[in-house]
Design brief:
Elements lengths: L2 H55 L3 H11 L5 E8 L2 E8 L2 H10 L3 E6 L4 E2 L6 E9 L2 H7 L1
Antiparallel strand pairs: 1-2, 2-5, 3-5, 4-5
């Protein structure tokens, strides 16, 4: 008599075991796909974090161009603007290139401003060709400069 409840209990346990086993077998491929997607998501999150770090560490050439356009006189023309490794190099024509050195040195955005080449006369009367370089400051300085 005691054997019958025990057999029924064991049968119930076995039935539950087989049902869960079947469910596990159907869910296992989904779990593997989920793990793959989690790894891909983690990789993308790391790339986004790296891109944000680079963005915080670097100043956009458009920001520098905007800064220069707002501060240079209408009589100064930029012909080239190059940014590499936190160094800005610009070349152009201006009636007073020495004034440009002072303008950049007065800004917290730049330091170590210097001429890269000799100043030479240009076609418009009284204008001179120039090429100068400066080290760029951090982007946080640029944001506070606005």
């Amino acid at each position: 008599m005691l054997a019958m409840p025990m057999v029924l209990h064991l049968y119930g346990v076995y039935r539950t075991y087989t049902e869960y086993g079947a469910r596990i077998d159907t869910l296992r491929p989904q779990a593997e796909k989920t793990q793959i997607l989690e790894r891909k998501l983690q990789s993308v999150e790391e790339l986004i974090e790296y891109a944000n770090k680079l963005k915080k560490e670097n100043i956009s050439p458009l920001q520098i161009l905007d800064f220069l356009t707002r501060r240079l006189g209408d009589d100064t023309w930029l012909q080239t603007l190059d940014m590499k490794n936190h160094k800005l190099t610009i070349a152009g024509i201006s009636p007073n290139p020495a004034k440009l050195i002072q303008l950049l040195e007065d800004s917290p955005l730049f330091d170590k401003v210097k001429f890269e080449a000799a100043i030479t006369p240009a076609a418009p009367q009284g204008a001179s060709r120039f090429q100068l370089s400066a080290r760029l400051a951090s982007p946080t300085v640029l944001k506070s400069e606005r």
